[in-house]
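pasting for ref
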Amino acid sequence: SKRQCVIKQLKPVADNPQMYALLQQRFQREAAVLEHLGEESRYIPNLYASFTENGLFYLVQEWIEGQTLAESVMGQGAWQESAVRAMMIGVLHTLIYVHDRGIIHRDIKPDNIILRNGEPVLIDFGAVKETLNVSTIPNIAHTARSIVIGTPGFMASEQAAGRPFFASDLYSLAITAIFALTGKYPQQIGTSSTTGELHWQPHLENGQGI
């Protein structure tokens, strides 16, 4: 149909042919999950195809028209509270749908939320990345748990330790909301020396935003 799409090329970590075959099975399983999610929710991109070629793994996904949250904030300034609330509610509805199916996104951040006609679409699920980073068969269960998928500053402490929970996605969404409100990344905001909490309130830009 020549429709516009996104092609993601992923390189698996495979030490031997047996490991590669195992990763291929896991990749196909995770791709099937992504396909199902996209079919059932318009706030998750459709997966059109998945395949392997020359030792690399590929996902062919729906092209989502719009700016990322990061592009919006960097280009137009910090958002007003009402806009941030609407964005959070939209993403939370998607997370309820995803979490009810036992799936953790693992990489919620401003770059992974695309605003399509003002509605947030959640992209770039981390499960496939984790699948392709398992490197040894004897320790596969341990390795799978220890692989850290996510973005520094937006990850909860348990996720940074390789043990993400459903609540880890909520933490990442909260940090993303702070970015939208302040226009600053977590690394640009000071933290409490005793609690580690972000001191984001002084960074609010009153009257600025969309």
